[in-house]
Each structure stands twice: as structure tokens, then as C-alpha cells.
Amino acid sequence: MPAKIKFELDEGVAHVTLSYPRRFNAMSRAMWRDLRSAFERIQGMTDVRCVLVAGDGAHFCAGGDISEYTSFRFHEAALREFHEVEVWGALSAMLACDVPLVAQIEGNCMGAGVEIASCCDIRLAAESARFGAPIARLGFPMAPREAALVAREAGLATSRQMLLEAAVFSAPDMLQRGFLSRVVADVDVSAVAQATVRRISELAPQAARLNKQTLRALNHGQLPGLLATAYDYADSAEQREGISAFLEKRPPRF
User: Fold this and answer.
1) 29-58, pLDDT tens digit by residue?
2) What tens digit of pLDDT does each residue of 135-145 get?
3) CATH code at 4-201
4) Kind of pairing, strands 130-132 and 108-110?
5) Contact, 59 vs 106, CB < 8 A?
6) What does the domain layout of the chain look like in residue ranges?
7) 133 class by beta-carbon count within 10 Å (0-12 exposed, 13-18 middle, 19+ buried)
8) pTM
């Protein structure tokens, strides 16, 4: 099967699947470009309430497609283009997405997989999932923007071990270190992920988008810039419905 990003919309939930099963869903250059396109598309869709990011089959993402590396990694301009345009273009599109992102992580989550998971708001993992970025064995470092992203989400101590020691961590380890939201039995991870995205999709979509914008601004030290428009939702149908439903003791219809 060819390497690709699968996209499917089901009742307000966008399913984004990393699909390259014969390489444990390692990211090819085309997949990075398609991942960016998928999230730029999602950002413009008003009917998407949640995104589920998963791997095809038994693994989330084993890293980058090393079979492609000799064609560009030995040339500085090509290497810069790959990381700054293709990889960071996709990751920044995920980070800029105002829709909640849930990662369903199984099997290997290495290198590029850790970076993609780092862009998600809620990270659910199977108990047997494994995490790392052992690229020191391949003779190169993690690109600066990507390293900053992983360090922010996984923590500096964990990132140091991943990058300097080529350490690989279990899902319970990553839960304890604060990277994961929840770890569940392997047989339950799909059902738990589906229940999570459905629960999110039933909540107020405008509030979710505004919360993501606030959290992103807070993360970048840009919170004061939101204050001028922070309360524009005052007369929104969503807020009126939520409060009315509470007072009338009925489920809201968002």
C-alpha cells in the first residue's frame, strides 16, 4: 500500500490516519505535505468538532521514512527545505488548528510520531506503546523547531534522554512524565479514543475553538492581544443555548 494520509469525516469528527503500514507508518515527504493540507482543510471547515489522529494498524508512527533520506539529507539547502517547510509546515498547521485534536497512540511512536503527538491536545495511549527519538543512532540531531515542540510537551528531562541517550519509554513512563493524558489496555484504546472524540464533539464547538486560541496565545506569551476581542461571544447562540439548557434542566443542543 502507498504511503498516504487518510482523511474521513464522520458526524463532526475528522479522522486523520497516518498510513504506511509496511514501514510502521513512517512519514514520507509526501505524507508530511498531505498532513499539512489535511489540517489546513480542517481549519476552514465549520462542521468539524474534533479530530482523531491515529496510525493505520498496530503502530502510530515509527518516525521518518529513512529510505528517502539519501536523496536530500546530505545537502544543506534540501535538508533545510525538508525540516522548515515540509515537516514544520505540517506541524505548524496542526498547532494552528482551532479544533480539539485527540491522538490515539499504539505501538511505536518514535521521532516524527512524538512530534505529531506533541501537536495534539489529548494523548491516549495503549499500554504497550513505546516512545522515543533515537535519531542519534542515525547520526543527526532533531531540527530546532521540532526539538522545541517536543521539549515543551514532553519536558526537557525526557527530551534530553530521548535525544542524548536514545532512550525509549513505555506508555506508563510517559503518563508519569506528563506527556500522556491516559493509558489504557491495548484492547480498549480504540474504544476509549472513539468515546473521547464523541464526548468532545457533543460539547460547545465555538467554546472549544476559543479555548484553543486562548491556550495557544498563553503558550506564546500573546494573551494580551486577545483581550480586545475576548468577549465577542457574549451574544452568541451557543452561549444562549448552553445557559438556557442548564436553567431548563435539559441537554444543550450545540
Assistant:
1) 999 999 999 999 999 999 999 999 999 999
2) 999 999 999 99
3) 3.90.226.10
4) parallel
5) yes
6) 4-201, 205-247
7) buried
8) 0.96
